[in-house]
Write a structure and sequence with these properties.
Layout: H1 7-15, E1 23-24, H2 25-36, H3 42-55, E2 58-61, E3 67-70, H4 72-80, H5 83-96, H6 102-115
Antiparallel strand pairs: 1-3, 2-3
Helix pairs in contact: 1-2, 1-3, 4-6
Length: 117
Amino acid sequence: MTAHLDPLATHLLQLLPSDGSSLGNAAVRQRLGEALGQPVGLEAFAAAVDTLLSAGAVTKGRGRGGSLRLSDGMREALADAPATAQLATHASARRARRPPGHTHLQLIWKNLAHAHR
C-alpha cells in the first residue's frame, strides 16, 4: 500500500469521532456527501472503507447497515501527534486546498500501513 491517501478516505477519517465511538455507515456516507458537496456513491464509499480497513485505520462496528470507528492504533497515533505538526498541517492544507489534517493523516496512515505488513 502506498502512503497516498484517497481524498474520500481522508474525509472519512476526519468524520469519525476521536473518542472511539462508532458512526453508522449511512450517516458517514451522508456526511461525506455534505462535506464534498455531492452525493457519494456506494461503490466509492465501499472502496474508501475497504482501503481504511486494510490499512488498520478503522474497524467495523455493529448495527443495521454497519458502522465504523477509528481503530485503537489510529486513535493512539492521533493522540500522540505533536500539536506543532497539527498546526503546520492546517497552514499547508490551506495553501494546497486540501482538507485540514491531510498531511498529518497521511503520515499516520503510512505508519499504520507499515505496521500491518
